[in-house]
Amino acid sequence: MGAFLALGLFQGAVYGLLAVGIVLVYKAKRVFNFAQGEFGGVAAFTAFAIVVGAGLPYWVGVVGGLAAAVAMGLIVERVIVRPLESSSRTIMLVALVGVALFTIAIIVLIGQPIPRVMPPLIQGGGVNILGAGILPQQLILMAVLAVLAAAMAWFFKTDLGLAVLASSQDTRAAQVVGISPVAVSRLVWGMASLLGGIAGLLYAPVGIFTPGFMTLTMLVPAFAAAVLGGMTSLPGAFIGGLAIGVVQNLGIYYLGQQLKVPGAAELGVFALLMLVLLIRPQGLLGKEA
């Protein structure tokens, strides 16, 4: 069981990173960002092309991947989000789903739908934690999650972070005191795309990856993590991601291996969500409307 618990924590760290980006956009725009996973996909494929395809140093691939993710986020904000600002949230949601599908199609056209292997940042054997062989890449993932959690907590205590919070609460009042909603929107989408890019770069070297891998395998658990933690709580998104990862893997162990129940991981997550939302509809750390 210890091995499944350890693996769940490391998988949950990826969910947490994506969930924080989802919550950031939701707090600012009150819309579910279905393109969040593809920020990671674009970062991973860009880094792969730089490191493996062009043979350049790893750090160049990381910088290039993150730059591509942030550029995509800013383009989405300018071309899709801002023109639809006055439209219904449903229209914007459908537009963001379209962005995700369009991005996957472009990656397939350019890179072909074949599995790829990204070399890890640190080569070497695994470390035994609770009976599980944990790769150095997974340890880096947990360290990055901890650093980003502290950085986000600090950021929202700064004047810039408070401006983002003020704009999300009341855009008109924020404008009156000199806060630019356009600048805040750019910042939020830039930060969300950066977090998605980091998640993609850290997760891709753990195994093989294909076009759409972040959206198809990571996005739904990340949304579940955001809802579980509270759609307005950044710390809740981190905690929700870890909880979803742990419950998925413990579900596989208890329900899948012991009781032979099909769909054990999804069943465990569904049960956890229902339990938490029945007791606290606003999520673990969310605030009541």
Task: Tell me about this structure.
The model has no long low-confidence stretch (mean pLDDT 87). The protein has helices spanning 2-29, 36-53, 58-81, 89-111, 136-155, 159-169, 171-176, 181-203, 213-217, 219-229, 234-258, 264-279, and strands at residues 116-117, 127-129, 132-134, 208-209. The strands form 2 sheets. Strands 1-4 form a two-stranded antiparallel ribbon. Helix 1 crosses helix 10, helix 1 runs antiparallel to helix 11 (234-258) and helix 11 packs across helix 12. The protein starts with a helix and ends in a 10-residue tail after the last helix. With 289 residues, the chain is mostly helical. Helix content is 73%, strand content 3%.
Q: What percentage of the residues does DSSP assign to strands (E)?
A: under 5%
Helical/strand content category: mainly alpha
Overall strand count: 4
Summarize the amount of helix as a percent range: over 70%
Mean pLDDT score, rounded? 87
Sketch the topology as an H/E string, one letter per element: HHHHEEEHHHHEHHHH
The biggest beta sheet is recorded as: 2 strands, antiparallel
Strand order of the largest sheet: 1-4
| C-alpha end-to-end distance | 39 Å
* Regions with little confidence, pLDDT below 50 for 5+ residues: none
Q: What count of helical segments does DSSP give? A: 12
Shape: globular
Radius of gyration: 19 Å
